[in-house]
Amino acid sequence: MKIGIVCPYSFDVHGGVQFHVRDLAEELIRRGHDVSVLAPAEEEVPAYVTAVSGSYSVPYNGSVAKLSLSPLAFRATRLWLEEGQFDVVHIHEPLAPSISLFALALATSPIVATFHTSMDSSRALRVAAPVLAPLLERIRGRIAVSQEARRTLIQHQGGDAVIIPNGVYTAAYEAARPIDAWAERDDRPIISFLGRLDEPRKGLRILLGAIDEVREAHPGARFLIAGRGSNDQAAQHGRSHDRNLEFLGGISDEEKESLFSGSTIYVAPQTGGESFGIVLVEAMAAGACVVASDIEAFRLVLADGDVGYLFATGDSHDLAHTLIRALDEREQTTQLALKGQEYARRFDWSVVTDDILQIYQTVIDTNSEPVLEAPRTLVDSIRKVAEKLRSEVDDE
Fold it and tell me: Are 52 and 39 in contact (CB under 8 A)?
C-alpha cells in the first residue's frame, strides 16, 4: 500500500503527535508498505520524511507548537501529493493551522484523519469552523486517539470517530534496564517525572509542592525530574533539597526507558489539555507504578484506577498522601505495577497498526467515487482563513 502521512507539527520538536507519526510510519515501513511523511522541519529528518520549511512557533492548546502555513508550504504540499499518488492520505490534526489544512483541501486520494487534541474551548476553531466545515466532509475515515479527543471533535467540528489509541513499542520498555544511579532500592524508592519544566499544564509545581510531605514520611525517597525548559521554582526547590531531588534535563529515548525501568513510581501531575497519556503507558510498560492526576484522559488510560493510583488534579497534598500510601504499601504497589505492565501491552504498535490498517483498507474499498481537489474558491478561502487562524491562535 502506498501511504502518505501528514504531520502538522515540526519534526524538529519532540512531541506526542510527532512521535506517533514517526513510530506509525516506521512500523508500516517495517511491514513492507511504501510510506512518505510530510512535516515542517528545518533540521535533518529521516529519509521517509519530506520536509517543509518556514515553520513558526505559536501558543496552541496550552503548549507551544511549530507549524507551517506559508505559500511555500501550500505549494510543497500540493507537489508532495501530486508526486506521491498515494492509495490513502492520513492527515493528523486536520484542522491544525498548518500543512494539514492544505493537505485536507488538496488531496485526491481517500483521506483518513486522526484527531489528537483535547480542549474545552478554542476561539481559533470557532473563527474557522464556518469555512472549514466543508473540508471535514472530505474525510472518509476518522480516528480519535482517546475519548477526550473524540469529545473535542464532536463538540467543535461535529461528526464522530473510532477510537484507536496512541501506540508504544512496549517490548523496548519491558527489556530496559535502569542506570545504577537511577535505580530504586528498598531504602531508596525512586519517584520520577518527565515533561517540559516551563509548561504549567504538565504540573511540575504540583509535584514540587508534595515533596516535603513525602520526605517526612519516607526520608530516603528520591525524586528524579526529567525534561527540557527552565523553571525558577524548580531550581529554587532543587537547591533546598539537593540530596533528594535531581533535575536531569532533557533525556534520550533510551534514557527515558532506563529512567522508567528504575522507578518505583512515575508521577503524571498534569492539570489538563491531555487527550491521551502516552507517557503513562510507557512507564507502565517499563514496570513503574503510575500515580496520575484524575483528569479524564488519565482515568481512561489507568482504567479508572484499576492499574494505577489517581489523585485529585492540582492538589499537592492529595498527591503527597497518595505517594505516601503507595510507598507504605509497597507489596500492593508492586502488584499494581505488574498489572499495569500487562495492561500496557494492549497499546503496543503491533495492535494499534493492525487497527489503523483496517481503517485504511475500509476507506480504499469503499472509495466508489473519485476524490476531487476542493474547489478553487474553497482553497482560496482556506488560505485566507488560515492566516486568520494564525493570528487568532497567536492571541489564544
Answer: yes
